[in-house]
Specification:
2 copies of one chain form a homodimer.
Chain A lengths: L4 E6 L8 H13 L3 E7 L1 H10 L7 E5 L10 H7 L4 H10 L5 E4 L3 H12 L9 E6 L6 E4 L9 H19 L5 E5 L10 H12 L5 E6 L2 H5 L4 E3 L2 H26 L3 H21 L7 E4 L4 E4 L6 H16 L2 H25 L1
Parallel strand pairs in A: 1-2, 1-4, 2-3, 4-11, 6-9, 7-8, 7-9
Antiparallel strand pairs in A: 5-6, 5-10, 10-11
Chain lengths: ~350, ~350
């Protein structure tokens, strides 16, 4: 692998592929002149689109593929019969050492299943998780798992907490990010068994991590902790509920403004301030969910991402690569895993 | 029981009890001249507060109690040793026929446990659920369970769907409200076993109900269906995430406005429109979670409710009583339960 950073792109995945994907890559390429792209997908379409979006010839290489993983394909089916797909080939290029990371806006389940098979999971990790950065009143927070594991045991939750801890450190240079376990009440007696068990284990880490105990759904917007840990079902519900609520409020706001001429003028005056706010809260700049716990970097863009949004998923992969996220998770896992093993044994003795 | 509607109030439950409770009752009393209130709690405090908030002497009766269920009491402990509490006594007054409904801002778990014991569950219902009305782009929606049952099987989810269907009909006069099962993807293969099983059963009802299949977190804000059905863990996470996101956005908006004089003037002009919007979306008017599946009406106010907000939880109890919600759920259950039984048997044969 050369010194240049190389990112593989599944150019056929997502609602707006391949056009928004190539357009997005082209935008990310302008912002990151030292990155080279491998584009996997339909050769003819990609040739036309790279020309249309003026992606310089020395910045990319097209790898023609003939198959596309569909949005409603079962992950197991995709894995078995999708070996010629743009998604599989893009991930394999990371495994083979041709690229540092892969980005896809395609089927989440298939991407996770293929990434697990191709890249393998880190030693000490039972199940990889999907993490994302979200805005909050206190600045960015990290949440995981957001949908990879609909059901989790306490050990999975503990592993998510450690991976979230490392991710936050790498992304935001905070020495000991605070960690909370999502529950339906902050009292010790609330919630499910696996959450209470995970809490006991995490407390046992002492000052190796900054575990704050249980948090609730409203704490995400408040930014009560840096890292929110939960199972993939609740995490996915929370993530999508944030999306729906934000849309509901902004749509209602727009409607309210249109209700009178005076309020329209008022909003016109406030436009610069609102534009700033919109920019800060634009969900598109938070695009790029990270698969943690793999032996390689695999980033999932929102399926409905436009070019602007997809370019941020690419940025996310670049940032993770530049900061050696996988190596850092491996390191941290080594130092804390001894503690986990001891604690798990203790817990199972009880 | 006289013809007047009588509502029992646990005046000692909640962060701002008893003052906000009595103030709230007084506000609800003004809006509902035909309702009589039984106030359970510390006699001296309630005498002083009813005087302070000018609750007319012929509109209430104080029932002195000596014990208070605390916010962090375990429900099992509260049930065993809280028989002299304002909460228990208030619920018992409904069971004894002295009141039509009870409202409390106290410990949710204790209120549910005590309500179950005192009022009993409806025949055919395995587990009562907590339901609430939420605003959406398409108007009000109902969501349940919001925290009574951290874990649910498919049968519980089916019962929640039926109760939600009846609640929506009663509250909003829609003949066949649309029902969705909260999941982490709309495809058939997604999510947990119990959710897929519940979906099969609900489809078996045919046109008796208007079941739309799986929905996701973002569909709540969109108002994609009238009734959102989920387990108490995810429901609670979703509810609190909505709360946190709304606070995050409105706080960020306020901050943005303060950033310049021009934008301040702009917002001043838009104030009437914004005030309208604020009124429409004020979470306080949606206060009052309903315990469904009980042989009686028990309403849970937000623990942190102020007087204005608590008065809406009282309204909610009044509305449910006036519309004979319990009887209507019983009726509907009778007509659909036969179908459920048949379907469950079918499902278990498979």
């Amino acid at each position: 692998m050369s010194d240049t950073l190389t990112i593989s792109i599944d150019a056929m995945g997502g609602d707006n592929a391949p056009e928004a994907i190539v357009d997005g890559v082209s935008r990310a390429a302008l912002r990151n002149p030292d990155v080279f792209f491998l584009l996997f997908g339909d050769e003819k379409q990609l040739e036309a689109l790279t020309a249309k979006y003026q992606l310089a010839a020395d910045r990319f290489k097209i790898h023609p593929t003939t198959q596309v993983v569909k949005g409603d394909d079962k992950p197991s089916v995709a894995v078995r019969s999708g070996r010629e797909s743009s998604m599989w080939k893009a991930i394999m290029s990371v495994r083979s050492g041709y690229a540092h990371a892969v980005v896809s806006a395609g089927n989440t389940g298939a991407l996770m299943a293929m990434s697990k098979i191709c890249l393998g999971t880190l030693s000490g990790i039972d199940r990889p998780a999907i993490a994302a950065v979200l805005p909050s009143l206190q600045g960015p927070v990290v949440a995981l798992d957001l949908g990879a594991n609909a059901e989790c045991n306490s050990q999975n939750l503990v592993e998510f907490a450690i991976m979230g801890h490392v991710l936050y450190r790498v992304l935001f240079q905070v020495e000991k990010p605070s960690i909370g376990l999502l529950n339906i009440g902050s009292e010790e007696t609330k919630g499910r068994d696996e959450i209470r068990e995970a809490s006991t284990v995490l407390k046992g880490f002492g000052d190796k991590i900054n575990f704050k105990g249980f948090v609730e759904g409203n704490d995400i917007g408040h930014g009560a902790v840096h890292v929110f840990v939960t199972d993939g079902f609740s995490g996915n519900v929370a993530l999508k509920t944030i999306e729906g609520t934000a849309k509901f409020i902004t749509s209602s706001l727009k409607e309210a403004v249109r209700s009178s001429i005076v309020s329209k003028i008022g909003f016109l005056l406030a436009t610069p301030a609102l534009r700033q706010l919109k920019k800060k809260m634009d969900p598109r700049i938070y695009n790029g969910a990270m698969f943690l716990g793999l032996n390689g970097i695999s980033v999932k863009s929102h399926g409905g991402a436009d070019a602007f949004s997809f370019s941020y998923a690419v940025e996310s992969a670049i940032h993770m690569t530049r900061n050696h996220l996988c190596d850092k998770i491996k390191e941290e896992l080594r130092t804390v895993m001894d503690v986990t093993d001891i604690l798990s044994e203790e817990l199972h003795k009880q």
